[in-house]
Amino acid sequence: MATGRGGRGAALLEALANNLSNRPGLKEEEPQSKQFSSGASLGRGSLLAAALKQTGETKPSLLSEPAQSTLSTPSIESKPLGRGFAAMKALLQHQQQIPMVGRGMGVSAQTSSTSLYHPTSSQASPALTAPLLANQNNSGSQDIDEISRRLGQVDVQEQPRRKERERLPTVTMIGTEGTPLDLSANYVRVKCTNPGVYLYSVQFSPPIDNRKLMMKLLMEHKDKFPTLNSFDGNIFYLPYKLPQEEVNLTSTRKTDGSKISIKLSYVKMVPPEHCCHLYNVIFRRIMYILQMCQVGKYYYNPNTPAVVPQHKLEVWPGYITAIKEHEGGLLLLLDASHRVLRTETVHDIMEKSYHLNPSNYKSDVFKMVVGCVVLTRYNNKTYRVDDILWDSSPMERFQLKTGESMTFEEYYRKQHNIVIKNPSQPLLLSKRKPPKGMPPGFKMDPEFLCLVPELCYMSGLTDDIRSQFTVMKDLAAHTRVTPAQRQFAMKKFVNNVNSNPDAKKELAIWGLELDSSTVSINGRLLPMEKIIMGNKEFMAGPQCDWSRDVCRNELVSAVSLMNWGVFYIRKDAPRVNDFIRCLQNEAKNMGINCLVPFRKELVNEKIETLVQELRNSINSKVQLVVVVNPTNREDRYSAIKKVCCVEAPVPSQVIISKTIAKPDKLRSVVQKIALQINCKLGGELWSVPIPLQKLMVVGIDTYHCPTKKKASIGGFVASMNHTCTRWYSKVCIQQPGQELVQGLQICLTAALRKFHAENHFLPEKIVIFRDGVGDGQLDVLADHEVKQLHRCFTSFGEYTPFCTTVCVQKRINTRIYSRERNGEMANPPPGTVVDHTVTRRDRYDYFIVSQHVRHGTVSPTHYIVVDDGIGLKPGQMQRLTYKMTYLYYNWPGTVRVPAPCQYAHKLAYLVGESIGREPAECLSDRLFFL
């Protein structure tokens, strides 16, 4: 035998059939004895034969040697055993001890076909070993016939059955607190007149693994089926049951003219509520029928753009659609969406960069273009730019699938009637992503595409564009849609679908009908909260805004500024004088005693000069440093935070010079800065009543670097007192892109120790608000992070608190409207709760509108209780969640998510963007990251 390992399956059978006289790899002119020299590695056939011989096999068996054979097989123990042979040997050793029945030894060849033919499988297939061991009483030739018969029955195309997801019971958790509200949401009921969808497995003979070719072969029989876009490569979904359980078809492969047999086998009927994935595919088809263009995830209408010529932008209107089974049945989520596109091309950006910086324009273009999504208007498709081919040009030739070669310039002129103006421009490289569901390692053909810069239009907004107030204001006129306008857009979409013959026919095939109006919901308005300050208590008001009251009353806990310093450059000295004077006046109204700071005037604007001055000035007596930066430079800000959070830990406040430059706005700016400073020194601003005793509230969020070059940061914040106004913070650094926090157990253990040191007892109830987790990670969250929590309790002895974990989702497309008396839709007031109809059918969840917006449509926040250990009533859990939105000290009003989540986000963002390391422990009991 050759030095390579023995063959599998067919090779072994061939060797057996030839009585081991002509094994795979054996040359005819070589004697067999040479193949079994001590230096050769053994194939599986010979090793298995030796194993049978060592087990004392006396009866004729499949792998027994002929009597006249004089082959000398070396000892098995002299060579290390491979995994496949080790499995065979183990089976042989147990042959005489356990019966050959059960799942491992008696499975049919058909159920084991995948593992038998899988190229990376290293274990013996049950389909092969079962007959080898069970039929030893028969002769070798009979066993060979049995093996051949079974292998002939093996269907290599059959896949292992997917484990069906267990249908969980409906969860109904409805609260009673609050006053009733008449609401609506952006959901439309979907009616299905069919009993369900019929599933058929499709098998091709000879086997085919190209889905496009499968579709072409099925298209030859399109007269027999109402739709063919419901075939996913394995299962064919039909709206009705075929007369026969099995249908046999024959198609012709055009490449070689060979006949392909197609067999459709009935599997089962699935009810409509289990077919949401199929219905979403149908609605994507309807979008194409309505001539919508897919850009990213959603679909837009390129025929009716809103142009913003002064900023070289245009806005495409579009829709977001998604069918899911909710507590109120099968609902279609429908929302208006907008896509901002730039009318400038990548070629325009290249030219502009060249004129601004000729010596280093390539680096500038690379930063602005690579990683962005571009749109090619000749086919309305989007591509992600992965690289720039500076050495290539449109005059470069490429080969078509037909074998013909042509230049890019010729291709666009012939195919799209487009004349490329600059033949010397470089090309853009885009890597094609494989479709979802493809096996690992699958590559597209072709894997890379080359694009011409002058035909690629930039999409989306850059940070520079977002920072321009006038641009965002002009865009808001097109993108900021009121509830009434959203309602009109939804009705328009439903009417377009029902009035379009092709779209209506597509829905009728599957028995689907759309309701003409959105769903009606009976919601509730939670009671308004009372704001408690140092010398006054007042109600938050209908808009939940107490910005005036917070600056006119004493704070809950004010920290005096006794020893603090200001760092600035010489030209900002007049502004710094006005700032200090105003800060001392405003601090008195809040109960803060503010003394005159020490000043450090910097000789230049260099970062090194500032860093050195900070290191020389900060000592254990300094409470706070204030740095006035001349410009908004990220590297300067990061350098300050690294010194003040890691090297010489002290609370720091960074101010941009132009922020305090306008005298008419100085007072309001200084008031906000004074509140921030008091928080960073450990003070408390306001509070709300918290009825639960011995409670700890935790917030968790994760920061991911957009470029994936930096580590992901998990931010952890926990309350330290009864009123949830003092917080303990900690971070854990993770791998780039990692969402679930690995170090949660360490963070919570440290927080519990700090809580005990502050209160001399451990909390009995812990409520965790986890932000940044999508639907696909909810089960992993419950199994991974929640278990970390319970493991950390064991380090405190017999300590078993009640723990509830709530997932917070703010990036959702659900919109909730208040139905006015005139029938118009408006934004609901803060404190609106929806906990039925549009909630998940199998989860404990609710929506809360916690903030007031003056323009556009308010967005609710979705809360999913993944682990309810405390067992609060639904109304109590909702009220506690709403109370937490009052306690974010960076804004005197309610915020969209609970305060601990927002604190965790600010902490993770600061560490991920600027510091990159864990902050000093002495800052952990202050809100230094605001």
UniProtKB/TrEMBL annotation:
It holds the Pfam family Piwi_N. Transmembrane segments: none annotated. Keywords: Cytoplasm, Developmental protein, Differentiation, RNA-binding, RNA-mediated gene silencing. Residues 624-916 form the Piwi domain. InterPro entries: PAZ_dom (IPR003100), PAZ_dom_sf (IPR036085), Piwi (IPR003165), RNaseH-like_sf (IPR012337), RNaseH_sf (IPR036397). One of its GO terms (molecular function) is RNA binding. Gene3D superfamilies: 3.40.50.2300, paz domain, Ribonuclease H-like superfamily/Ribonuclease H. This is Piwi-like protein 1. It comes from Biomphalaria glabrata (Bloodfluke planorb). The lineage of its organism: Eukaryota, Metazoa, Spiralia, Lophotrochozoa, Mollusca. The gene is LOC106076129.
